[in-house]
Amino acid sequence: MKKILAIALGIALAGLIAGPAAQAGQLMYIGTLDKKLLVIDEDKEEIVDQVPLGGIPRITALSADRKTLYIFTTQMLVETVDLEARKVTSSFSIADPNTHLRIQGSAPDRINVGSQTRAAGLAVDPNGRYIYTTMRVVLKDIDQYRVEPPQFVAIDLQDKKIAKAWPFPQDLDQGFGFNATYKVSPDGKLLYVFQEDILIFDLATFKQVDRIALAQPEYPGATPYRLAANDDSFDAPDTVTSVFTSVDDIVHKGTLGLAKINLLTRKVDYFPVGPTLPMMGFQVSPDRKRGYSVMPKIGTGANRATEWWVWDLQNHSVIKKKEFESRPTFRFSVGGSGKKLYMYGAGSTLEIFDADTLDSRKLIYLNKDTTTNLITLASR
Predict the structure, then answer these.
(1) What does the longest C-alpha to C-alpha distance in the chain come to?
(2) Which end of the chain lies in a sparser environment, N or C, as judged by fewer CB atoms within 10 Å?
(3) For residues 129 and 156, is the Cβ–Cβ distance under 8 A?
(4) 23 by DSSP, 3-state: which?
(5) Which residue has the higher pLDDT, 281 or 6?
(6) What is the distance between the alpha carbons of residues 315 and 127, in angstroms, rounded to a whole number?
(7) HEC states along 133-180?
(8) pLDDT averaged over the chain?
(9) How much is the pLDDT for 309?
């Protein structure tokens, strides 16, 4: 009997060891044009799995526990992916043949004009029930297309439909604007809207209950700070970390920095980093000690010369620079351990750089062009 139990226990343990969760290292995810979500192991530096999707993925949002990824396809299919099981657990469409939905799914990077970086215009309920966003509906009539006024909507992931739609108040008749980003409070009751100031709405009534006036820079005449709730997987649920810039209107001196907003106390702290330069993206390591940017030196397009810059965020200085082969368009991300940098978005490749030496380590071929941002998660 003991021998049988030992054999059974051995089989069970072998099954656990061989399972996806046990084998998984530090994973990251990216969507591709062939309707797939690729699973990439950061340690192995290779694709270890792929999740078939019902459409071309375009917009992504992480759940509060970082275990679920919500994907909007180009045809407004909403797909829920269990990242641990690596499968689609729910899929439904919020469109119909007579309407064309326009979701404020992303907003341009306000920090680096001309950058390929995009900020998510979606807000996920921490309880996993709703996704909130601004939506415009284009109706197809017999002889014309009619654009309806924008509405703020709650997409019910459980009942698989648009559960609520609120009209905007008169002073916001065109919505929050294309540049607005969102964050839901940890208890799921409040919506924080990041634009010129941070507006706070009650999600039960869609009534504004408070406003956080963003600080003016210390020198007179300077432009005010404007923050964004980027989909940063390294942030705590009650925190938003945002890059900000400010420029005075006299000598046009620019300042780059980080702002940290506590959603519970509603306090905003500002940490200047250095002068604003014509950089192409700015990413922060998981431990918030290093910043990384790409700096164009000369030229434009494929002929431009570009450098990695590493910023010491505590001492407000640039500690390392290194030139690399540029490309016409790209995006980059910091790995979950902070030891690697990833460059993508220029076709079907993912290039891996060492975050310390800034050397190129490896080029991974993904077979199809990427269509979403790269989702990296902090080390467990």
Answers:
(1) 86
(2) N
(3) yes
(4) helix
(5) 281
(6) 38
(7) EEEEEEEECCCCEEECCCEEEEEECCCCEEEEEEECCHHHCCCCCCCC
(8) 82
(9) 93
